[in-house]
Amino acid sequence: MKKNIFRHLFLVSILFTLVCTFPNHSWAAEKKYPTGPIDLFVGFAAGGQADFINRTLARGLEKYLGVTVVPGNKAGGGGIVLASLVASYQPDGYTLGTLSDSVIVATLTGQGTYAMEDLHIVGVVASYENCWVTSIDSPWKTIQEFVDYARKNPGVKYAHPGVGSVTHIYTENISRNAKLNLTNVPFKGDPEINAAVLGKHVPIAAYAYSSGKIQTDAGKTRMLLCYNGLDPTIPSISKVFGKSVPTFDLVFFLAVPRKTPDEIVKVLEQAIEKVSKDPEYVDTLRKNNVWPLFVDSKTCAQKTIPEKISILKAVMQPLGLMK
């Protein structure tokens, strides 16, 4: 009898060991990740800056993950459509999203059908810049000249790419904290903004650095300010206004569904850190007026995103943009 009992116990232990080490067990699958192609979507249409960043990132991830990474587009709502999809995808690490700060804004305005808690931010993959430009024959040769004028003449109009956009909110953050009392004038996009500045319909514009640089390099506009100082030749918010104007980096980050296993997130996090230091990736971004930047998942969750939300709320509440 005892022999039979021990025999049964021995067989059960062997069976338990086989089950735990079976190749299809989830732990084993996670350890092998990735084993097949990965889809990497961005929440904007093909041809723009976001699409360029996504395609460049896809090439870098292929190099360090050793599998095919297919870039694609899920445009709509300034990234809101993709963020909603990412939150609902299978948490297996094979469908990823490249998102921007606009998806954070959407959770505060109530436009998103997701919460930031529904996403796991793997890390920041790139940073971009906003700027202020004025026509080349405007009376302001420096940002300080414009600041002095605006403070003495409340209501100076500035063009921006839409109410509730990150650029609009960030510019209102500057206007209010620096006591400039600017008046916002929304447009549909950068081409309309350029036309408004060149036609002197508005005295100053706040929009993408990449668009502003094209006009400035062509001698049509003068760039007065860069928000985060990524272009060292142009004054930044911190240099002009000091700590009186709170700032945050404008970024794109990689995101997966909240329930994605930590082991998969770690593989992706390590990969984008390597990509961010890759000379080809760095050179490609810089040639297109985008800056490589890596911020790890833990820092994003505990510091980067909470600080952004705090600054955004302080500006959005008085504007009536909060849900």
Explain how this protein is built.
This protein is an alpha/beta fold and 323 residues long. It has two domains: 33-127 and 249-319, Bordetella uptake gene, domain 1 (D-Maltodextrin-Binding Protein, domain 2), CATH 3.40.190; 130-226, Periplasmic binding protein-like II (D-Maltodextrin-Binding Protein, domain 2, 3-Layer(aba) Sandwich). It contains 13 helices and eleven strands. It has helices at 2-21, 26-32, 49-65, 80-88, 102-109, 143-152, 166-177, 190-198, 209-217, 237-241, 262-277, 279-287, 297-319, and strands at residues 38-42, 69-73, 95-100, 119-128, 130-135, 157-160, 183-186, 204-208, 221-226, 250-257, 291-296. Strands 2-1-3-10-4-11 form a six-stranded mixed sheet, with helices on both faces. Helix 3 (49-65) links the parallel strand 1 and strand 2. Helix 3 (49-65) crosses helix 11 and helix 7 crosses helix 13. Mean pLDDT is 91; it is low at 1-30.
The radius of gyration is: 24 Å
- The termini sit apart by 71 Å
CATH architecture call of the largest domain: 3-Layer(aba) Sandwich
Structural class: alpha/beta
Helix fraction bin: 40-55%
CATH superfamily of the largest domain: Bordetella uptake gene, domain 1
Low-confidence stretches: 1-30
Question: What is the 3D shape?
Answer: globular
CATH class of the largest domain: Alpha Beta
How is this fold's topology laid out?
Blueprint (H helix, E strand, L loop, with lengths): L1 H20 L4 H7 L5 E5 L6 H17 L3 E5 L6 H9 L6 E6 L1 H8 L9 E10 L1 E6 L7 H10 L4 E4 L5 H12 L5 E4 L3 H9 L5 E5 H9 L3 E6 L10 H5 L8 E8 L4 H16 L1 H9 L3 E6 H23 L4
Parallel strand pairs: 1-2, 1-3, 6-7, 6-8
Antiparallel strand pairs: 3-10, 4-10, 4-11, 5-8, 5-9
